[in-house]
Amino acid sequence: MARRSQCRAMKNTPTDPVPLLQDLVRCKSVTPAEGGALTYLENLLSTHGFTCQRLIFREEGTPDVENLFARIGTGAPHLCFAGHTDVVPEGHAEGWTFPPFAADIADGFIYGRGACDMKGSVAAFAGAAIDFVRTARKFKGSISFLITGDEEGPAINGTVKVLEWMKDNGHIPDHCIVGEPSCVDQLGDTIKIGRRGSLSFAVTVEGKQGHAAYPHKADNPIPKLARFIDRISSASLDGGNDHFDPSTLAVTSFDVGNPAGNVIPSRAAAKFNIRFSPEHSFASLKTWAEGEIAAVKAEMGGTWSYTATEGADAFITEPGAFVGLVQDAVERETGVLPKLSTSGGTSDARFIKDYCPVLEFGPTNATIHQTDERISVDELRATQTIYGRIIADYFSAEL
Predict the structure, then answer these.
(1) C-alpha to C-alpha distances, 90 to 66, 95, 101, 108, 362, nearest whole angstrom
(2) Residues marked as catalytic
(3) What is the predicted pLDDT for the residue at 38?
(4) Tell me, what's the pLDDT at 11?
(5) Contacts of 372 by beta carbon, 8 Å cutoff, 6+ apart
(6) Rounded distance, CA 37 to CA 39, Å?
(7) Which of 9, 114, 129, 118 is nearest to 373 (CA)?
(8) What is the gyration radius of the CA atoms in the chain, in angstroms?
(9) Parallel, antiparallel, or unpaired for β 267-276 and 248-255?
(10) Measured between alpha carbons, how far is residue 76 from residues 199, 359, 386 in Å?
(11) Rounded to 5 degrees, what are φ and ψ at 6?
C-alpha cells in the first residue's frame, strides 16, 4: 500500500523545468546547427505520449534546417506552443562569468546562451504540458509544439515551411502561443499581441561629377537627396492608435563614396527603414515614398531610382476571448495585469498570424543576446506555472 502511494505521489510531482533547461542549454544549437536540442526535446515529449515529427527543409543557397512538430490528441480545441531552440552565437566566451553552454547555476540564476531566448520558455511549456497531460488523463483537444531551428537565422527553412506542412497534414491549431521573452521589468508585465511591420528603402540620385570650384558645370546630387531626407525625416506617417505607437522612420545611411574634398560626386545614395502599424501596407508606403521622390524631383530635378525590401508585415491579434484568457491566467498567477503590447522587432508570430490567432508570452528579456544571458530559477518555475494555468484554463473554456 505504501509503495502504491509512493508511485501515486511521484506521478503527481510537478516536472521541474530547471534540469530540462540545463540540458537544452548544453546543446550548442547556434543557428543553423541542431546541436542535439531537438533530439532532446523529441525524446522528452515522445516519452510522455506526444507523436513527434522531425522535419528537415532545404532551399538552394540556404543551410538545411531541422525542425520539430509534436502533438498529443487529434481533436479540437488545438493549442500550439511555438518556439525555437536555435540561439545566437555566444560572442567572446572569455567574457562570460560561466561557460556559455555549461548551464551553471549561481546565486539563483541559470547562466547560458538561450536561457531566456528562448530555451527557458521551451522548457517551461514542455514541463507544463507534460504535467497537464499526466494529470488530466484524457482531455478533449490537442496540444502541439512547433519548434524551429531557424528563428535567429534567415527564417526561410523553419516556421514558414513547418506551417505549410502542418496545413497539408491537418495540424493547423486553433490558437498559438509563441514563447518569446515578452516581459520587460517583471514576469507577467507584458503580452505581445502584434508586431510592427518593417520596410527598408535604398534611394539613389544620379548627377554629374565636376570640380568644386565650378559647381555650375556639375550636377550635384547631394542637395537633392538631402532635401528628400529632410522631407521624409520630418514627416508624420500616423498618430498611432490604441495598440500601436506612431509609425517611425529611421535614416540608416547617407553615402556619396567621395574621398576628395574638391570634387562634386556623380551619385548620392541613402537608406531608411520604416516600422509601421496595420494602418499601412507595403504597397501604401511604397506609394508614399514615390510621392516624396516625385515632389523633390519636380523641385530640383535629378535622375532618381529606389528599391524597397519588404521585411515583416504588421499584424495584431485583436483582444478577445483568447487574449483575455491568457491575460487572466497571468494575472492570477503573478498578481500583475499584463500590458498588451506591439513593441519590439519581429518574431515568428508574423508567419503564424496567417493561420490562427497568435500572441507572445514568456519571461523577462533583460539579458537576451547578451554576455551572461541568464534566467532566475524562480522565474523559470513561475513561467511554467503560468503556462500550466493557461493550458488548464484553455481546455476548460469555450473559446
Answers:
(1) 21, 10, 9, 21, 21
(2) 86, 151
(3) 98
(4) 59
(5) 96, 97, 98, 111
(6) 5
(7) 114
(8) 25
(9) antiparallel
(10) 37, 19, 22
(11) -65, -40
**pLDDT at site 84:** 97
In one letter, which amino acid is 339?
Answer: K
Query: b/e per residue, 235-252, with b = 16+ CB within 10 A?
Result: eebeeeeebbeebebeee
What is residue 8's predicted lDDT score, i.e. its pLDDT? 47
Q: Which stretches of the chain score pLDDT less than 70?
A: 1-12
Angle at 386 between CA 384 and CA 389, to 5 degrees: 110
Q: Which three cell numbers stand for residue 23?
A: 540540458
- In the chain the domains, ranked by start, together with CATH numbers, are 18-195+314-394 (3.40.630.10), 197-310 (3.30.70.360)
Q: What count of residues does the chain have?
A: 399
Q: Which residues of 182-206 are buried (b: 16+ CB within 10 A; e: fewer)?
A: bbeeebbbbbbbbbbbbbebebbbe
Residue 89 carries which side chain, given as an amino acid letter? P
Of the candidates 333, 319, 335, which has an alpha carbon nearest to the alpha carbon of residue 389?
A: 333
DSSP state of 9: H
CA atoms of 108 and 5, how far apart (whole Å): 32
Instruction: Tell me the residue type at 175.
Output: H
Q: Report d(CA 56, CA 65) in Å as an integer.
A: 6
Using DSSP, state whether 197 is helix, strand or coil.
strand
* φ, ψ at 262 (rounded to 5°): -120, 20
Q: What is the DSSP letter of 35?
A: T
Burial of 168 (0-12, 13-18, 19+ CB in 10 A): exposed
**Neighbour tally for 209: CB within 10 Å:** 15
CA distance 21 to 18: 5
Nearest CA to 120 among 374, 388, 390?
374
DSSP string, 153-211: TT-SSSHHHHHHHHHHTT---SEEEE----BSSSTTSEEE-EE-EEEEEEEEEE-B-EE
Nearest to 277 by CA among 338, 343, 339: 343
DSSP state of 298: H
Q: Cell 548627377, residue?
A: 207
* Euclidean distance between CA atoms 338 and 137, whole angstroms: 31
**Nearby residues of 267 by Cβ (< 8 Å), 6 or more positions away:** 204, 205, 206, 207, 221, 256, 257
Q: CA 35: distance to chain centroid?
A: 21
Tens of pLDDT along 13-50?
Answer: 889 999 999 999 999 999 999 999 999 999 999 999 99
Amino acid 61: pLDDT: 87
